[in-house]
Every structure is written in C-alpha cells, then in structure tokens.
Amino acid sequence: MSVSQNLKSDLVKECQSILDQKIELLEKQLADFKKAANNETKSSVGDKYETGRAMMHNEMDKLKQQQAQAITAKAAFMQIQFNNKASKIQLGSLVKTDKGTFLLAVALGKVVVQNQHYFVLSLASPIGQKLKGKKQGDSITLNNQCFTVLKIE
Q: What's the pTM?
C-alpha cells in the first residue's frame, strides 16, 4: 500500500471515528436528559415547572434530530466506495488542490490526520458540486478563489 493509500485509509478511519463519537455523545446527552426528566418533580409553582419541562422536551427533540442526522451520515459514509480508482472526481475521491486537500464523502469539516488538515465535504457542498467530474489539471472558481486539481485518489 502506498503512502497516499495509507493516508486515505487513515482519513477514512478518522472520519468513521468522528461519526461514531458524535453518535455516542448524542446518545449520552439524550440519556442524561431522560434521566433529568424522570428526576424532575412537580413544584408548587406549576407554570415554572411546565415551562421547564417544555424547554427540556424541545432540547430532547433537537438532540433526537441531531442523532438521526448523525446516524444517517454514518450510514451514508459506510456506503461510499473509497477504493475506487477514477480519473474524474466522484464520491469517495481524495482530491489534492493547490488550496487544500478534500475528501468527498459526508459533511464533517476539517479533520486532522498525520498532523495535516483535510476537509471532509459532501458532494452537495458548493465546492463538492464544483469539483464533481473534474480531472487532474482542471480548475474551478469558488468565491473568487481559483482551485487547481493536482491529484485525485
């Protein structure tokens, strides 16, 4: 396995780990909220109690939505074929440009692997849409910045 294949493999593993940690954290937060709700006792000030419960319920709904999104992102990530060799940028491509290196997968943002910064983006992102289908040597412009594709893995 070449150095670049090791890098891509390490980057994919780090992304999986980030997604797993995000899901685990959200599950813990939900469990903590449920525990707190079960321990909540009705106070003599009924309106204050009801307002607090409603706010807690809203927060739990937000956490459940974030959890569902994280689970969906993890499932989508696990379906991506990262070992495909392609001459054009596609889902699963590791793209080195003159402005940074991007893994086209799911939206995770900046990820650090081997002391280097990489950007893990979805194809639906503005730069993902512009990069899709491009070949080595092609250029794109985004926000008045020109990106030249140096390498596709």
A: 0.83
Q: What is the pLDDT of residues 10-30, one digit of tens each?
A: 999 999 999 999 999 999 998
Distance CA 27, CA 114 (A): 29
HEC assignment per residue over 49-99: HHHHHHHHHHHHHHHHHHHHHHHHHHHHHHHCCCCCCCCECCCCCEEEECC
Model confidence over 37-69: pLDDT tens digits? Answer: 777 655 545 555 566 667 777 888 999 999 999
> Rounded to 5 degrees, what angle do the CA atoms 26, 7, 5 make?
120
Place of tokens 């525990």: 35
- Is the Cβ–Cβ distance between 135 and 87 less than 8 Å? yes
How far is Cα 131 from Cα 89, in angstroms, rounded to an integer?
7
